[in-house]
Amino acid sequence: MLVVSVEVSDAVVAVRARTRSGVPVGCTGCGRLSTWRHSRYARRLSDVTLAGRPLLIDLSVRRLYCESTTCPKVTFAEQVPGLTVRYQRRTPALQRLVEDVGVVLAGRGGSRMLRILNIRLSRGAVLSQLMRVPLPPLVTPRVLGVDDFAPYGDTYGTLLVHATTRLPLTLWEGRDAERLGRWLREHPGVEVAYRDGSLAYRQGITAGAPDAVQVSDRFHLWQGLSRRVQDIASIHRGCLPAALPPISDTAPAPVKESVENTIEDTPAERHARRLFEAVQALTRSGRSHSSVARELGLNRRTVSKYARAHTWQEVVLRPPRKPSSLDSYLDYLHQRWDEGQHSAKILHEELQIRGYLGHYQRVKMAVAPLRRVLPIDEPRERPPSPREATRWITTHPHRRSPHINDRLPRLLDHCPALRTAHDLVRRFAAMLDNRDATSLPEWLEDLANTGLAPLTGLARALREDRAAVTQGITTPYNSGVNEGRITDVKLQKRIMAGRAGFRLLRHRVVPIAHLRRRYADRPTLLPG
Fold it and tell me: From CA 29, how far away is CA 68, in angstroms rounded?
C-alpha cells in the first residue's frame, strides 16, 4: 500500500512514503469504500528512534470523495493502519512510548528520559499526554478495601483497592462519607468492605452498600490499642525508671543524691529552681497545665516537665552519656594514663592498633576529665521512653530479647496501670492469633472497667463498631494491600517533588499499577 524511500544522515533518518493510487479506502464517516481521489496532501510524522537517530516520516496520503450520497462527509483523508491516527503527528508506537514514560516518570522525569531516547518533548507536553490517557475500565469488586492517606500534611485522601486483583480502583481528595456512599451506589455489587475504624467510612459504606459486610482491619485495631498503651505509659512516665536493674552496693552513689546537696551556683540553676517552685505551687492548687502555662508565659510542655519532676535538679541534670565504641577501651586509657602517657593523639594511635575505629576527638574528650584529676564518666543506661515501653508490652513474648525479658517484669511489678494494659494487650493478641472473638464482649467489659481514660475511650469506640471488629478478628480480610498501595501513592508524589494534585496522582497511581501488571505478565524471551 506504501511506496517508501529512506534517507539516512548523521542527525536524522528521513523516510519518504506515499500511498498507492487506485486502492479503495473506507470512508471515515460511513465506511463505504471509495477510489474517487480529490487531492493529495503531505503529513510529517515522528516515530520512535532508529539506531539512536530521530525518525521522521514524510507521508503523502490521498483525500477522496465519499461516493455515498447520504454520508455527511463530502471528502475524507485516508489513514494508514498502524502508522497514522487522525489529528496526531506521532505514530501509535511513539504515542504509546510517550504515554508509558509519562505514567512511570511524570513530567520532568519523563521529559529527561525521552531526551535520553533522543525524543524532544517538554515536561508540559508529557503531562498533557499523561492526562489524556484513559483510565482502565473500572470493574466493581466483590471485596473492596477502603483506606485514607495524607499526601500533604493535614490534607487527606481516600483510596479504593480491589482486594482480589490487588489493583487500585480510584482515589479522591477528602475522606467524607457522602462521596464514598455515592461511589458505592454508582458501582453496586460490593459484598465485603474492609476499612479502619473511621466513623466516616463506616457511615459511607452503610449508606452506599447497606448489605455489604463491614470488616474493621486488624492492623488498625492493633495500632489503636498500641497508641492507647503509649498514652498510659506517657501518663505514668515516672514509673519507667523502675525498669532499670538495681544499683549494686559497690556502685557509686546515684547522681540525684549527690546533686541534691549542691547549692545552685549558675544562673541556669537559679532560674530552674524558681520555675520549679512556681509550677509546683500552682499545680498543687489544682490548676491545669494549660492555665499554668498561660499565667507564667511558658510552653505547656515545659510546664509538664517541671510538674513531673520531684526536684529542680532533675530538670537541669544532663542525660546520661550514651554507650559508645570507646567504652571497651576505657580500662586501657586508664592504664596508659597512669603509666604517664598523656597525649591524646598518641593514645588514639595506640587504640587504632588495637582495633578502635572511632574519631580522635572522642579520645580527646574522654581523657579531658583525667587532666582535671576527675574520673571518666562511665556510661549509664537510660530508662525506656513511653514508646519503647509500649513496644516491650506489644511484642510477642517469644520474640522479646533477653534485655526486654529482664526489664519488663520489673516495670510491670512497679506500675499496676501498665500491668493492666499488658494483660489486656496479651488477651487481645490471643484473639487475633486464634481468629476467635468469643471472649471479645468480656474483654471489652474489662477494658471499660480499668479506670484508665485511654482504654475506656477505646472500649466505647469498639463497642459502637462491634460487628465489624468481630469480622476483623475472625475473617482473613486485612488492609495489607491498601497499605502497600498507599506507599506507592506517596512514592509517586515524591517522584513529582510533592507538587502533584489528586487528579494527577489518580492518573499515575491507577495506570502505573496496570502497566506493571501488563509487563509482568509478558513472558521473558531468552536467547536461543
Answer: 10
d(CA 117, CA 125): 16
As given in the structure block, the three cell numbers for residue 324 are 559508645
Task: State the Cα–Cα distance between residues 374 and 356, nearest whole angstrom.
Answer: 24
d(CA 375, CA 467): 63
pLDDT value of position 147: 92
The three-point CA angle 45-46-50 to 5° equals: 130
Asked if 402 contacts 227 with a C-beta cutoff of 8 angstroms, the reply is no
59-88 confidence digits (pLDDT tens) = 888 898 998 888 888 898 888 888 888 888
Is there a contact between 84 and 59 (Cβ–Cβ < 8 Å)? yes
Phi/psi for 15 (5° steps) reads -115, 125
Per residue in 412-435, pLDDT (tens digit) is 999 999 999 999 999 999 999 999
Yes or no: say if 283 and 292 are a contact pair by the CB < 8 Å rule: yes
Q: Is 457 exposed, middle or buried (0-12, 13-18, 19+ CB in 10 A)?
A: middle
Looking up cell 511484642, which residue turns up? 395
Report the DSSP pairing between strands 143-152 and 192-195.
Answer: parallel
Q: Is the pLDDT of residue 516 over 60?
A: yes
CA quadruple 116, 119, 120, 122: dihedral, nearest 10: -80
DSSP string, 353-422: HTT--S-HHHHHHHHHHHHTT-------PPPPPHHHHHHHHHS-GGG--HHHHHHHHHHHHH-HHHHHHH
Q: Which three cell numbers stand for residue 256?
A: 540525684
Looking up cell 515522528, which residue turns up? 46
Cell 507536553, located at residue: 125
